[in-house]
Amino acid sequence: xxxxxxxxxxxxxxxxxxxxxxxxxxxxxxxxxxxxxxxxxxxxxxxxxxxxxxxxxxxxxxxxxxxxxxxxxxxxxxxxxxxxxxxxxxxxxxxxxxxxxxxxxxxxxxxxxxxxxxxxxxxxxxxxxxxxxxxxxxxxxxxxxxxxxxxxxxxxxxxxxxxxxxxxxxxxxxxxxxxxxxxxxxxxxxxxxxxxxxxxxxxxxxxxxxxxxxxxxxxxxxxxxxxxxxxxxxxxxxxxxxxxxxxxxxxxxxxxxxxxxxxxxxxxxxxxxxxxxxxxxxxxxxxxxxxxxxxxxxxxxxxxxxxxxxxxxxxxxxxxxxxxxxxxxxxxxxxxxxxxxxxxxxxxxxxxxxxxxxxxxxxxxxxxxxxxxxxxxxxxxxxxxxxxxxxxxxxxxxxxxxxxxxxxxxxxxxxxxxxxxxxxxxxxxxxxxxxxxxxxxxxxxxxxxxxxxxxxxxxxxxxxxxxxxxxxxxxxxxxxx
Length: 481
Hints:
Elements lengths: L24 H10 L9 E4 L2 E4 L24 H4 L17 E5 H6 L6 H8 L3 H14 L10 E3 L6 E6 L4 E9 L4 E8 L4 E7 L2 E4 L3 E5 L4 E5 L4 E5 L3 E5 L7 E12 L5 E6 L11 E7 L5 E8 L3 E5 L1 H17 L6 H5 L22 E5 L15 H4 L21 H7 L3 H25 L8 E5 L6 E5 L16
Helix pairs in contact: 4-5, 9-10
C-alpha cells in the first residue's frame, strides 16, 4: 500500500408521503428498477438467499449483508499511528480490516434515513415547528454513527453514489470532487419538489495518542421550497476513542448552529463531551431563538436515543429542582474513578439508562431500532444495510463510477478480505498513475456533476450541483475502477 492514501472517518423513521415528481423516460426506468413497479407487484427475486417480494408496488430492501464482519481482535494500529500524534491524518494507510464495506459517499447518504423529519418541516405552517423538525433532522443525521467504529472507504476521485427511494420520496447524488484535500459533495431533492438538501464535506482528522478526532468542515444546506426558507449548519466533531488498546467507542461534541436565513431564527445545539464521570455522554441540549434573541423553546435529549423540546420556563424550573436534589446526594469521586484518568485505555463511561423526561415536553425524534444481527454487520442500521445492494440489471442503469461497482468494497462485503485488500491497492495505484499522467500532460481534473462556487446563503465557498445527472448521459465518465 502507499502512504498517500487518505484516512478519515465519517463525521456523518421512514414516514414519508409517496411521491409523484416529474420524471424523464430514463428516470421512470430507473425508478421502476430500483423501487416501484406497480405493474409487476408479484415479481420475486433471489438475493443473498432471501426472496424479495414486491408488496403494493413497494420494493423490499435487503435486511442483512452477504457475510458477517471480519474480526479485528488480532490487529493493532499502533505501529501505524504512533508517529502521527498531533498530526492531521492525511497520508496514512490503514489495513482494510478497520474499514466497513461502504464508501464515505454512502455514509453521507445516511443523512436521509430520517427524511420524514424534512417532510414534517415542509408540512408545518408555524416557523418554530419547522425549526424544531430541522433541528431534529440535524441530530438524527449523526445518529447512525453510534457504535460505528469502522471507517468507510475513502472515495476515489470522480467516484459517485446515487440513491432513488420513491417509498421515502427523494433522490440523492454525490461525487468525490477532490482528493487532496478529500472533499465529498452531495445533492438531494424531494420527488414532490418540496425540498433541496445539499452540501460538501471535508473532515479534518487528527490523532491524539489514544483517540482520533474528526473536525467537520463544509456547510450543509436545507431548502424548504414551499416556505421559501433555507437552513444551514455544520456537523459536530466526532471522536473515536481507544484506537490503540481497549474497546473502541465514539462521542460527538461541539456546538451546532442552525440558521434560518429567511426568518432570522437560530437553533443552537450543544453536543456535550462525556466528561470525567461520563454523565454527559451522548447528551444534546440547546434552544431556538428568534431574530431578537428571545428564546422560544429548549431542546434536550441524546443523539443516540431521542430529542425532546419544551418551553424555557418549564425547563429552567426543572433544572433548578434537579440541582437542589443533586446537591443533597452529591458524593466524592471514588479512587477507582480518579485512577481511571491514567489507565492505558479510556474506558467508555457507563451510559445512563435514558433521557430524563420533563413533563409537558414534545417528542421531536426517536432513533430507529437496529436489526437484531447488527453487531455482526458493522453495527449498520437497516438503512445502511441496503445502501450497497446491487440487483440484477442495475449495472446497466448506474453511472460506471458508482460506489456499488467498486470491487474492493464489494469483495469485503462478500467476506473476501484478501481479494478486497488487493483490489483496494490496485485502485489506489490506478488513481496515482492517472494523477501522474494528468500532471505530465498539464491537464486539470474536471468534476462531472458539481462545480465550485459560493453558498448563496452563507457566502462561503461550497460545491454546488451542476445538474444533469439523472438525464443519465454517462458517456464521458472517467474509468476509475
